[in-house]
TrEMBL record:
<dbReference type="GO" id="GO:0016020">
    <property type="term" value="C:membrane"/>
</dbReference>
<feature type="transmembrane region" description="Helical">
    <location>
        <begin position="160"/>
        <end position="178"/>
    </location>
</feature>
<feature type="transmembrane region" description="Helical">
    <location>
        <begin position="261"/>
        <end position="285"/>
    </location>
</feature>
<dbReference type="InterPro" id="IPR002293">
    <property type="entry name" value="AA/rel_permease1"/>
</dbReference>
<keyword id="KW-0812">Transmembrane</keyword>
<feature type="transmembrane region" description="Helical">
    <location>
        <begin position="305"/>
        <end position="328"/>
    </location>
</feature>
<feature type="transmembrane region" description="Helical">
    <location>
        <begin position="65"/>
        <end position="84"/>
    </location>
</feature>
<dbReference type="GO" id="GO:0015171">
    <property type="term" value="F:amino acid transmembrane transporter activity"/>
</dbReference>
<feature type="transmembrane region" description="Helical">
    <location>
        <begin position="360"/>
        <end position="379"/>
    </location>
</feature>
<keyword id="KW-0813">Transport</keyword>
<feature type="transmembrane region" description="Helical">
    <location>
        <begin position="385"/>
        <end position="401"/>
    </location>
</feature>
<feature type="transmembrane region" description="Helical">
    <location>
        <begin position="190"/>
        <end position="209"/>
    </location>
</feature>
<feature type="transmembrane region" description="Helical">
    <location>
        <begin position="221"/>
        <end position="240"/>
    </location>
</feature>
<feature type="transmembrane region" description="Helical">
    <location>
        <begin position="36"/>
        <end position="59"/>
    </location>
</feature>
<dbReference type="Pfam" id="PF13520">
    <property type="entry name" value="AA_permease_2"/>
</dbReference>
<protein>
    <submittedName>
        <fullName>Amino acid permease</fullName>
    </submittedName>
</protein>
<feature type="transmembrane region" description="Helical">
    <location>
        <begin position="96"/>
        <end position="113"/>
    </location>
</feature>
Length: 417
């Protein structure tokens, strides 16, 4: 077979579904529409609602931030509809990697999957670092302080060695993921309900302090500011794609995947709009350029007791984001390994829990290393390298390993003999 044909060889939907039915590499079907909705909300609603709202209002959109959220949501709806259609038609782990394998061929699928590994990995490490900051702030409120060397990533000039809380939360999430998908989803549901309850508490208390005059001028930066705000808050919606990683573990994917993806996006959009209206109604928009705008707004009106709950909600919210992202990355390793493009150990499934435990452990080790030792600034640099160095490394790995070990390559060889 020519190199061109090797790079463009595709997996049919029938081949993918047959692969799922193999008991030695199949995942347990234990999730329903409600579980998927909670996973989606868990992945989407995190730093976006607790951090980005303030920055976008203060610097870009003002009270018209509500329009920014509407525009960003509309853009996401079309992508969400595509994911819902693909996930229901091809209920197989791997998300965009799997869909690309059927549509564009092996090499494109590999490169997309390889890039998603970086995206999920850096996101997990960054979220773990953010979780550490919130957790240490909460502990400080109780006058509990960790040794300075264990409070942040390695920095000899500051005397820090490792971000211990970031590593610990990764270990806890990993232990949970290895117990089973249904168990992970159940705890995620509890945390999501707590997070939503905290947001609703903010809305109930905050609406009493809304001053309509704070909404004027409504669009201080013009429509250009609204558009810039939409681009900023678009990242608040990222995460629903991770839901499609669970397609293989859904009992009725044709029905439940579209419900889970669309409903999670809808719920988050409604909450984002309500929070942005309330936030800019309580505090003049130009004062919202802070790291914790929701808690700040309540402190602004002397409701510090609610602000404490908001901080707790932020910690819980970030925890669910980390859980879903690590879940998605482990399934990405699993799918690529099952296709032969990564070593076979990543596709080993535990006989009792039917979870890819080795894949989950490797993901945890990588995320803990990056999250514990690299500062946020360095993690951000890694994403810039990913359109350059990371993809180059990925191409080399494919040509040296993946191209030869691909399951499709083995089928091609057997058909020619």
């Amino acid at each position: 077979m020519s190199w061109k044909n090797q790079l463009l060889r595709k997996k049919s939907v029938t081949q993918m579904l047959e692969q799922v039915d193999k008991t030695e590499s199949s995942l347990k079907k234990s999730l329903g529409a409600f579980d998927l909705t909670m996973l989606g909300i868990g992945a989407i609603m995190g730093t976006g609602i607790f951090v980005l709202t303030g920055v976008a209002a203060a610097l870009h959109a003002g009270p018209a931030l509500v329009l920014s959220f509407v525009i960003a949501a509309l853009a996401c709806v079309f992508a969400a509809l595509c994911y819902a259609e693909f996930a229901s038609t091809v209920p197989v782990s791997g998300s965009a990697y799997t869909y690309s394998y059927a549509a564009f061929g092996e090499f494109v699928a590999w490169m997309i999957g390889w890039d998603l590994i970086l995206e999920y990995g850096v996101a997990c490490a960054a979220v773990a670092s953010g979780w550490s900051g919130y957790a240490q702030g909460l502990l400080a409120g109780f006058n509990i302080h960790l040794p300075h060397a264990l409070t942040s990533a390695f920095d000899a000039s500051k005397g820090t060695i490792i971000d211990l809380p970031a590593v610990l939360i990764i270990v806890i999430i990993t232990a949970l993921l290895m117990k089973g998908t249904k168990e992970s989803a159940s705890l995620n549901t509890i945390m999501v309900l707590i997070k939503v309850a905290v947001v609703i508490l903010f809305l109930v208390v905050g609406v009493m302090y809304v001053k309509p005059e704070n909404w004027s001028p409504f669009m201080p930066f013009g429509f250009a500011g609204v558009a810039t705000g939409a681009a900023t808050v678009f990242f608040a919606f990222i995460g629903f794609d991770a839901v499609s990683s669970a397609a293989e573990e859904v009992r009725n994917p044709q029905r439940d995947m579209p419900i889970g993806i669309i409903s999670s996006l809808l719920v988050c959009t409604i909450l984002y709009i309500a929070v942005s209206l309330t936030l800019t109604g309580i505090v003049p928009y130009h004062l919202l350029n802070v790291k914790n705008p929701v808690a700040f707004a309540l402190s602004y009106v002397n409701q510090d007791w609610v602000a404490g709950f908001i901080s707790l909600g932020a910690i819980v919210g970030i925890t669910t984001v980390l859980l879903v992202m690590m879940y998605g990355q482990a399934r990405m390793f699993f799918a690529m390994s099952r296709d032969g493009l990564l070593p076979e150990l990543f596709s080993h499934v535990h006989p009792r829990t039917q979870v890819p435990q080795k894949s989950t452990l490797v993901v945890a080790a990588l995320v803990a290393t990056f999250g514990g030792l690299l500062p946020l600034s360095s993690l951000a640099q890694l994403t810039k390298v990913g359109f350059l160095g990371w993809l180059s490394v990925g191409a080399i790995i494919y040509f040296l390993y993946g191209r030869k070990h691909s399951r499709l390559a083995a089928k091609d060889d057997s058909s020619q003999t």
